[in-house]
Amino acid sequence: MPAAVRLGQIRPRLHAGVGRGGPAPLPHHTAGIGYKAATCIIATTLPGIGYKAATCVIAYSFGRNICPVATHTYRVAVRLGLILLETPALGRKVHLAIEMALTQGERLGFHINAMAHGRCLCSVERPVCDGCPVAEHCVAPERGRYSRQGGEGADLGGVG
Question: Using CA atoms, how far apart are residues 109 and 73, in angstroms rounded to an integer?
Answer without folding.
Answer: 11
